[in-house]
From TrEMBL:
Descriptive protein name: Cytochrome c556
UniProt entry tagged with the keyword Signal: yes
Signal peptide limits: 1-19
Keyword Signal: yes
Keyword entries, A-Z: Signal
GO BP, one annotated term: electron transport chain
Molecular function in Gene Ontology: electron transfer activity; heme binding; iron ion binding
Organism: Salipiger profundus
């Protein structure tokens, strides 16, 4: 049940951002990062049915999603957040710039986990089951009110399995040896941690 709750939190990665992009006239770097989040959200939606056991697992689809995450993570993500770029409709907290090292760490973690996920795609799901060790993004395809980075996470506050990037983050090579759903879950947790800490919630 907890896995499904985590999944539901993660699947909504870009719901708010996409709606803002469509309806609020975002421009410049704010628009660019909303588009990046939308691309990742679209990738999530392509793998969601597989993670829920509603579609046959397709390693090529998972690889393509992983490549999308790689494209928009690491430095590609951080360069979309120049200091002071939190004007409406941006929902970025000022905390991003006062805790830049943590934000940068999470962006880098996502890049590493996405690279590992690409390698893990060919491993299939754990035990051949629907969700194996759990995938955070396999819930409802609705993307209306949550955020892929919005729910609780083992990485959310710097505690738990992967709370501190400086203390033993797994390598992409290690992650590539895991079942695909486990690798996907780990990438999802990075996203959840980032949104939980750095995205302003709607009133």
């Amino acid at each position: 049940m907890m896995k499904r709750t985590m999944i539901l939190a993660a699947i909504a990665v870009t719901g708010t951002a996409v709606a803002a992009l469509a309806h609020s006239g975002a421009t410049g770097v704010v628009k660019d990062r909303m588009e990046a989040m939308k691309a990742m959200g679209d990738a999530v939606k392509t793998v969601t049915p597989m993670m829920r056991g509603e579609a046959e697992y397709d390693a090529d689809v998972m690889r393509e999603a992983a490549r999308t995450f790689q494209e928009h993570s690491g430095e590609a993500m951080t360069e979309l957040f120049p200091e002071g770029s939190n004007q409406a409709p941006s929902e970025a907290k000022d905390l991003i710039w006062s805790d830049w090292e943590r934000f940068e760490d999470l962006a880098r973690q996502l890049e590493v986990h996405a690279e590992g996920l690409e390698g893990a795609a060919g491993n299939g799901l754990a035990g051949g089951g629907n969700m194996g060790t759990g995938s955070m993004m396999g819930g409802s395809s609705g993307m209306g009110s949550g955020s892929m980075m919005g729910g609780s996470s083992m990485m959310g506050s710097g505690s738990g399995m992967m709370g501190d990037a400086a203390t033993g983050m797994m390598s992409a090579e290690d992650i590539a040896q895991m079942p695909a759903d486990a690798a996907f879950n780990m990438a999802s947790q990075v996203c959840s941690a980032c949104h939980s800490r750095f995205r302003a919630e709607d009133d």
